[in-house]
Amino acid sequence: MTDVIDGNAVAQGIRDDLRASIDQLEAEDVTPTLATVLMSDDPASETYVSMKQDDCEEVGIEAIDVEIDSDAPAEELFETIDELNADENVDGILVQMPVPEHVDKRAVLEVIDPEKDVDGFHPENVGRLVAGNARYKPCTPHGIQKLLATAGVDTEGKDAVVVGRSDIVGKPMANLFMQKADGGNATVTVCHSRTENLAEKTRDADIVVAAAGVPEMIDGSMLSEGVVVIDVGINRVDADTEKGYELIGDVEYDSAKDKASAITPVPGGVGPMTRAMLLYNTVKAAGRQSGVDIELP
Ligand SMILES: NC(=O)C1=CN([C@@H]2O[C@H](COP(=O)(O)OP(=O)(O)OC[C@H]3O[C@@H](n4cnc5c(N)ncnc54)[C@H](OP(=O)(O)O)[C@@H]3O)[C@@H](O)[C@H]2O)C=CC1
Ligand SMILES: Nc1nc(=O)c2c([nH]1)NC[C@@H]1CN(c3ccc(C(=O)N[C@@H](CCC(=O)O)C(=O)O)cc3)C=[N+]21
């Protein structure tokens, strides 16, 4: 029987556990606060940001919602970030990616105060992660580590194949898997659009993390019996549903499930975990910046 890993349930558990840490902060009159900055008209980005706001409300994190016109000058975004950096009440800042083309994405990531960088995308935080001394682990790969741990999948000694080398998913995932730490100690292969014979790599894997953004590009024929499949892909395809679209992963679910010992669905797999780990990093940030010594789940 294949274990279908329920990301919504694991994420709910993390949100519930975070309440105790938030209570510790509240006892010292600290309310953890996350500012989300949206500079985009993309409906998917709007959906994610509003879901993040709802999550904050559920657990008792204050959410500040900043929206910037997508054709406003880049300076407006930089000024907003400066203000949020300077605001002592703000613990975490998330600038929803992608930003418009006229905005220099790297410059945005570099101006966010690294202590408030709850995405973990600032070069200082990336450096710390690679050095094995992470301040804030990037939410998606951190969430995947929690999912695997909860499902009882030990990564130690396993062959892990990460498909995708983006700064937000593929690279930090590969780094976490190779670290000499719990949730790591795997032997890692990173694949991308120039990889030759992808199916040979994925067939050799004990764990496959699919994060390419290509709908259903990995099917059962590319996998070995007993593999653990983590599907990060979120692809909106037009469909005759209430919302007018359907969400499809990077994995062809039915054929992959036939081979897998465990698999994450889309939706309801990695996505909710990304959001839960954002809350986790925000609470951690509030503890660090207030000096209140909290315990984290
Ligand atoms: N569930 C969640 O919480 C999250 C989901 N996502 C989703 O995950 C997916 C990936 O996101 P993100 O990492 O930001 O994407 P990017 O577009 O930044 O990166 C995609 C990566 O996949 C590689 N790639 C593209 N096509 C292929 C192919 N045919 N074969 C092998 N590799 C390929 C690219 O290679 P190259 O480097 O050569 O271009 C690149 O490294 C998207 O569907 C996104 O929506 C993203 C973040 C969080
Ligand atoms: N600064 C920044 N940080 C991010 O973490 C970040 C980002 N920018 N830009 C875009 C990607 C994508 N991402 C998702 C988060 C949650 C779901 C999620 O909750 N998905 C639900 C369904 C969502 C729906 O219904 O549309 C699920 O899979 O069940 C998906 C994708 C975070 N990202």
What does this structure look like?
- This protein is of the alpha/beta class.
- It has two domains: 25-116, Leucine Dehydrogenase, chain A, domain 1 (Rossmann fold), CATH 3.40.50; 139-269, Rossmann fold (3-Layer(aba) Sandwich).
- Helix content is 40%, strand content 15%.
- It has ten helices and eleven strands.
- It has helices spanning 7-26, 43-59, 74-86, 105-111, 123-130, 139-150, 170-178, 198-203, 253-259, 270-290; strands at residues 3-4, 33-38, 62-67, 92-95, 159-163, 187-191, 207-210, 228-231, 235-238, 245-248, 262-263.
- It has a six-stranded parallel sheet, sandwiched between helices.
- The two termini are 30 Å apart.
- The mean pLDDT is 97.
- The structure holds NADPH dihydro-nicotinamide-adenine-dinucleotide phosphate and 5,10-Methenyltetrahydrofolate.
- NADPH dihydro-nicotinamide-adenine-dinucleotide phosphate is lined by residues 140, 163-166, 168-170, 191-195, 198, 211-214, 217, 232-235, 270-271, 274.
Give a nutshell description of this structure:
With 297 residues, the protein is an alpha/beta fold.
**Second-tier CATH architecture of the largest domain:** 3-Layer(aba) Sandwich
Cα distance spanning the termini = 30 Å
**Quaternary status of these chains?**
single chain
User: What share of the residues does DSSP label as strand, in percent?
Assistant: 15-25%
Total individual domains:
2
- CATH class of the largest domain equals Alpha Beta
* CATH topology name of the largest domain: Rossmann fold
Helix content: 40-55%
In one word, what is the shape? globular
> How confident overall, as mean pLDDT?
97
CATH superfamily of the largest domain: NAD(P)-binding Rossmann-like Domain
